[in-house]
Amino acid sequence: MGRKKIGILVSVLIVGGALGYLALGNFGENLVYFFTPTEVKAFSSDYYQKKVRVGGMVVKDSVHALTEKTGLTFELTDGESTIPVAFEGIPPDLFKEGQGAVVEGYWTHGHQFQSHMIMAKHSEDYMPMELKRAGVELPKKDFMKSLQQ
Amino acid sequence: MIIEIGHFSVVIALVLSLLGMGASFIALRSKSSEWVQVGRMALTLIFGLLAIGMLSLVYSFLVRDFSVHYVAMTSNSELPLFYTIAALWGGHEGSLLLWVFILAAFSTIAVWLHWRTQPAIMPYLIGVECLVIFGFLALIVFLSNPFERLIPAPMDGKDLNPLLQDPAMVLHPPMLYMGYVGFSIPFSFAMAALFSGRLGEEWIKVTQRWTVFAWLCLTTGILLGGYWAYYELGWGGYWGWDPVENASFMPWLVGTAFLHSVMVQEKRKMFKVWNLFLIILTFSLSLIGTFLVRSGVLTSVHSFATDPERGLFILIFMAIIIGLAFGTLMLRSNKLKSQIELDSMVSRESVFLFNNLFFLVAAATVFLGTLYPLIVETWGGGKVTVGPPYYNAVFMPVALGLLFLMGVGPYIPWRKASQASLRNNFLVPVLIGLCLMILLFILGIRNTYALAGTFVVGFAGTTILADFGKISAIYARRDQVNYFKGLMTAFTSNQRRYSGLITHIGVLVLVIGIIASTIYQTEKVVSLHVGDEFLIDVYRMKLLKIHEVEGKNWKAQEGVFQVFRGSELVTELRPQKRIYNQSQTPTTESAIHAINMGHIFLTMPDVSPEGVAVARGVINPLILWVWGGGGIMGLGVLFNIFRPRKRED
After folding, report:
1. Which of B140, B154, B326, B603 sits CB 3.0–4.6 Å from B234 for a disulfide?
2. Domain boundaries in chain B?
């Protein structure tokens, strides 16, 4: 191998290494994990400062508007456990009581979920997989039946 | 009845795709030209039959035949005509049909277009295209059939998702698919080169226009998607690193690397294996993109919850094609040693090398961020997402590096650059870039990325403008004409190069728009009664009234806002909160006013029964540069495609 070739190889490695470090270095910090309300309730205090996502169904008659800020409080359930959520911001169009929702935020102090983002998810055929797993999907068959009536 | 004709046509097309593969195989074994003709006939017929299939679906949509399951799922009797036709690709099954239809159309065109000049390639081209067509048709016929009946038929259909009832969204999927599928032509030629051992530069030269055409479609598709997200989803941004956006961005990144690196092979006969690798990777990522979106494994605004069978099928099929392609490349790579090596670090070759490195790292980043959650979940590690801050942290430096190379690449000589040529070409641009940066610093801009961005954009922009200035002067003097005529002559004398530079200018404009609208966006959310007003940036927005309005298939509450700057009335904005009649789905329609190359963006996401409205105002400075830059990029590519043919072509 000539000197030139080594020089080129070294510089490619340096630039590539720097880029690789950039791509992998802060990867871990930017991961957001998904949990169910039951799992959130069981959080240890280590988790209070971690940004997480929680998916579940919005409990009927639990949605109230915040008075001093734009936002809502509501309860999110997976059928087993229910957690209170305080959301600051504008809920997406498809946010409704009795429907599925995924919220992102912090389980601060272990008693209320502070959220700044609700995922805009569609119902029926646009049901996100997370919710499908959380068991809140409207059965497709029922829907087809309602079409045929 | 009509729909059964379509169904039948598609089934025959499936059989013919097998025939096409068989014919090209026999043609290769027996070297018989008759069998190649059989293959061409099969491919052409597939195209015709799929057209019949598409038309039969369009017909069913138009007569609103809700006994067709797919029609009932994606349209209803109130849906406007335009969207009724577009509903064809508003759902899963139809968009797959569109995908394979475009594939058949492109490959048929390619076969007829290159038939005389590339006879040796034909059997491979037909074989590879038929294989891909076969895979997608099998998927359609067996697992996601848009021709299925729904008996008894419902009285009315379900609505097309209201978010998709939008002109940009009508064009977005076809453009994206044309991009994905367009790359299948250079891919097939590359495979032909690998199989046949004709590993020269020919496959690259023949498919150059296909490549830029595919790239143009993909770019347009991505930009349309961003534009749609911008005004339809109502959050005031155009790119959210959503997995589905990422799925289309990965082939774009590698495709862009490919269309740059082929120039090294054309001019210097280097990077041979690398170019084959890149085009195989580009098309593979197109397939992966389709898989990610269509299998429902991803959570995003686009993903449909579908049966896992479908995902598994696409996965296996994709693995076969990708495995075959990369396997052949590995077997052949020993024949592909280029005799020439890089002479110097300071040369155009090495700029291309780093260009490719940056693009591939960018693609790898997106790949990691998009697929990591899938991998974690598959191995039972729970559900996880990768946030936008990750991508932003990686992409900002990568983009700056690429922009810098964009200023250097076209002006640094091949082989080895002398000190003098470096000084001649780059000293002034570097100084101008620095001056601009200092100027912005004095004007009070302190954001590192904005300043660094200004430097590279100023640098790269100056090199290009200086180039245009110089050549127009030279040609004007030579022909004794004015500068403009000189520029025209110069442009047509080397249209490929200068059309590329126009695209580069478009990129610079786009980047300025992205930097300004990302870093200097102001946003405000307020609750207000009729008569109240709020201040955002320098604009005062006053809610005059809220009234009811009605469209063909929706009703809405419309807020009438007056926008003032000081005491002067700027405009009136009317954002809506719509409810679509059929599905009772609400949507938030933004109202936008363009001012100083930026946007005043206003939505009214909620009105309470007591009449309290929630309003969200966003000021997006220079956002028109994002779309304008996209337009200039497209213009450059069109100049490239429609350039006069020269001997080198």
Report:
1. B603
2. 1-161, 166-379, 396-520+633-641, 522-620
